[in-house]
């Protein structure tokens, strides 16, 4: 029996939601009153902004979070390891809305406070996930690599990273979902994203636009999630064997 | 030894640099503009050097020595620096706004926030390193007590946050109440649902998939979709309005928040279900325990820490998500935050944000402690 490729479910769900956010579909809901569906062009523009902001934030978070995670798992930094979990737990106690709101007076309206919130909120989970993924690499694998004379850099590149890849992909999935979600919240700070029709729609009772924004944001999250799941499945060393 | 000394010296330089190089206060003509920065030398006056010396001593001692006595001394130095900083800034704010027009505000600036944050973190590390029972709680209580004493003495009255608080004290109390009700309501709803779902043994896979799928949907989108769906339903069947169903308010907020709490609660429950291993089951059955006895004396105690861990994550998430409740008209501390954002008033944003952060941190710390205590009580 052939296995269902990983990520197919979220990808299909995302496509379905994206279709449902088309103005022709969304107009069925909220036909009365102040409902004015967004045009396809406007929706695409907002989606492009959303993707750009979220991708920039995700890139920063990945670079910093995974980089710091790699540093923290080196033997030299072992004494600091205990504080990472505590710090991560406490960093999660500040919700993203609050980070966006606090950055607003400092950075002004628009993209910058959103990007700052994205980074501040995303780093600790990514760092913790990276550390967890690298910790899951077995001691035996590391010791055998050492025994055949690999340098620490080679051990990292040929043993630790490939073995930790599934965990790292999981971490990136979390970071991606956070990025899409915080970017939507950024609409409150005046960033022009898919959250904008939701926030504006709540204020002026534009139900159709609210629906479109919500469905498109969710579609984006599911599509990104599905894409990463598919990449993760493709990276899996035994996937060809499993598919036969 | 030299490495220790170097670490101590570099740690000692950090806080004085923050306090001396960044502005400690901003004086603004009204509550909406940023205003002109005031540096430490002008802001603290005679308080400056004692505060800076203590702020250098605390982190320096902590980095230079691993001993318990040094940690204790470092903790006291941090406490002293914190109290001096706060008292000095309060006194200076009084001077700065004296004789100025009424809307003038003296606001804590970047240096004060960064310095205060580093002092508190250092104090927490020091308290942990003294390894005294209840050290962390005592330190937190002493900081709260110091702020409380200064507040009662009126030393902080001139700071902009206090002015904003006095203007909104009744709103703030109500908002905190609403916030707690929202979070608790969502937590109860989600806990009930999770408990119910656990009884459906066949559907475990489906539940797991659905519950983690919800996490992918951004919170703003879920709340928006809920409101839109209920309004569409109401316009299709206006009769429902008569039963008190409404598109805005606490109903969509509680439902939306609860949807996100299902995953941590579900994961905790599943971990708790697996906590008792097959060996323990067999042993219990061999002793002749009934199902009920196994549940009460073995499975519940062993699973309790996992259940509580799920509850802790869910509670912190609920408090954070409840901030978004204001978006759909459910009230809570988000109201203050969003009002502040709309008016571009930093003090108002802080007035809403600080209680959210404090509430989440308190819940996280308290439930985390309880979880650790349970794990010690019933080790696997």
Report on the structure:
- The complex is a heterodimer of chains A (244) and B (380).
- Chain A has one domain: Orthogonal Bundle (MetI-like fold), CATH 1.10.3720.
- The C terminus of chain A is likely disordered.
- By secondary structure, chain A is an all-alpha fold.
- The N and C termini of chain A lie close together (8 Å).
- The relative contact order of chain A is 0.20.
- Chain A is built from 11 helices and no strands.
- Chain B is an all-alpha fold and 380 residues long.
- Chain B has 2 domains: 165 residues, no CATH class; 209 residues, MetI-like (MetI-like fold, Orthogonal Bundle).
- Helices cover 75% and strands 3% of the residues of chain B.
- In chain B, strands 2-1-3 form a 3-stranded antiparallel beta sheet.
- In chain B, a hairpin with a 7-residue loop joins β1 and β2.
- In chain B, α5 runs antiparallel to α6, α11 runs antiparallel to α13 and α14 runs antiparallel to α15.
- Chain B starts with a helix and ends with a helix.
- The interface between A and B is large, with 46 and 44 residues.
Number of domains of chain A: 1
CATH 4th-level superfamily of the largest domain in chain B: MetI-like
Domain unit count of chain B = 2
Radius of gyration of chain B: 26 Å
Number of helices of chain B: 15
Overall body shape of chain B: flat
Count of DSSP E strands of chain A?
0
Outline of chain A: flat
**Average pLDDT of chain B, to the nearest integer?**
84
CATH topology name of the largest domain in chain B, in short, is MetI-like fold
Largest sheet of chain B: 3 strands, antiparallel
Gyration radius of chain A, in Å: 21 Å
Instruction: Using the coordinates above, name the CATH class of chain A.
Output: Mainly Alpha
Q: Write down the secondary-structure element order of chain B.
A: HEEHHHEHHHHHHHHHHH
What kind of assembly state do the chains in view correspond to? heterodimer
Termini separation of chain B comes to 41 Å
CATH architecture name of the largest domain in chain B: Orthogonal Bundle
Query: Most extensive interface: pair and counts?
Result: A-B, 46 and 44 residues
Q: Termini separation of chain A (Å)? A: 8 Å
């Amino acid at each position: 029996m052939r296995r269902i490729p990983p990520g197919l479910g979220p990808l299909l769900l995302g496509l379905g939601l994206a279709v449902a956010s088309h103005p022709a579909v969304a107009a069925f809901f909220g036909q009365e009153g102040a409902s004015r569906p967004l045009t396809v062009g406007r929706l695409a523009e907002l989606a492009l902004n959303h993707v750009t902001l979220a991708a920039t934030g995700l890139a920063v978070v990945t670079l910093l979070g995974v980089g710091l995670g790699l540093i923290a798992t080196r033997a030299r930094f072992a004494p600091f390891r205990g504080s990472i979990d505590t710090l991560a737990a406490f960093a999660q106690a500040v919700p993203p809305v609050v980070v966006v709101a606090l950055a607003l007076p400092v950075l002004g309206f628009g993209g910058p406070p959103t990007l700052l919130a994205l980074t501040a909120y995303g780093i600790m989970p990514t760092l913790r996930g990276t550390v967890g993924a690298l910790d899951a690499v077995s001691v035996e694998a590391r010791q055998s690599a050492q025994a055949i004379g690999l340098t620490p850099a080679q051990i990292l590149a040929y043993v630790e990273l490939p073995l930790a890849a599934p965990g790292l992909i999981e971490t990136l999935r979390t970071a991606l979902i956070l990025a899409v979600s915080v970017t939507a919240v950024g609409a409150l700070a005046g960033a022009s994203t898919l959250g904008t029709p939701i926030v504006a729609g709540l204020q002026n009772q534009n139900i159709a636009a609210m629906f479109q924004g919500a469905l498109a944001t969710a579609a984006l999250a599911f599509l990104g999630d599905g894409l990463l799941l598919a990449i993760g499945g493709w990276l899996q060393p035994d996937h060809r064997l499993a598919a036969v | 030894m030299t490495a220790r000394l170097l670490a101590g010296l570099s740690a000692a330089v950090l806080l004085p640099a923050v306090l001396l190089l960044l502005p400690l206060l901003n004086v603004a003509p009204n509550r909406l503009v940023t205003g002109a920065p005031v540096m430490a030398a002008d802001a603290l006056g005679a308080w400056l050097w004692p505060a800076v010396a203590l702020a250098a001593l605390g982190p320096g001692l902590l980095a230079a020595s691993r001993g318990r006595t040094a940690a204790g001394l470092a903790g006291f130095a941090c406490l002293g620096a914190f109290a001096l900083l706060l008292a000095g800034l309060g006194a200076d704010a009084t001077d700065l706004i004296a004789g100025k027009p009424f809307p003038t505000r003296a606001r804590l600036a970047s240096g004060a926030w960064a310095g205060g944050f580093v002092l508190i973190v250092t104090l927490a590390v020091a308290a942990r390193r003294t390894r005294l029972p209840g050290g962390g709680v005592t330190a937190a209580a002493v900081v709260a007590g110091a702020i409380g004493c200064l507040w009662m003495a009126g030393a902080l009255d001139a700071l902009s946050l206090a002015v904003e608080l006095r203007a909104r004290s009744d709103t703030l109390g109500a908002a905190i109440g609403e916030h707690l009700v929202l979070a608790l309501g969502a937590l109860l709803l989600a806990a009930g649902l999770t408990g119910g779902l656990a009884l459906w043994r066949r559907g475990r896979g489906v539940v797991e998939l659905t519950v983690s799928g919800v996490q992918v949907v951004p919170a703003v989108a879920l709340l928006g979709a809920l409101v839109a769906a209920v309004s569409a339903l109401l316009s299709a069947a206006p009769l429902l309005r008569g039963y008190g169903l409404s598109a805005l308010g606490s109903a969509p907020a509680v439902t939306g928040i609860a949807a996100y709490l299902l995953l941590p609660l579900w994961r905790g429950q599943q971990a708790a279900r697996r906590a008792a291993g097959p060996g323990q089951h067999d042993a219990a059955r061999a002793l002749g325990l009934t199902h009920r006895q196994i549940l009460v004396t073995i499975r519940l105690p062993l699973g309790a820490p996992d259940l509580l861990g799920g509850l802790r994550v869910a509670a912190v998430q609920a408090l954070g998500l409840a901030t978004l409740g204001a978006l759909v008209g459910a009230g809570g501390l988000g109201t203050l935050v969003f009002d502040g954002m709309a008016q571009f008033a930093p003090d108002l944003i802080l007035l809403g944000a600080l209680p959210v952060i404090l509430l989440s941190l308190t819940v996280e710390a308290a439930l985390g402690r309880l979880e650790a205590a349970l794990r010690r009580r019933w080790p696997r």
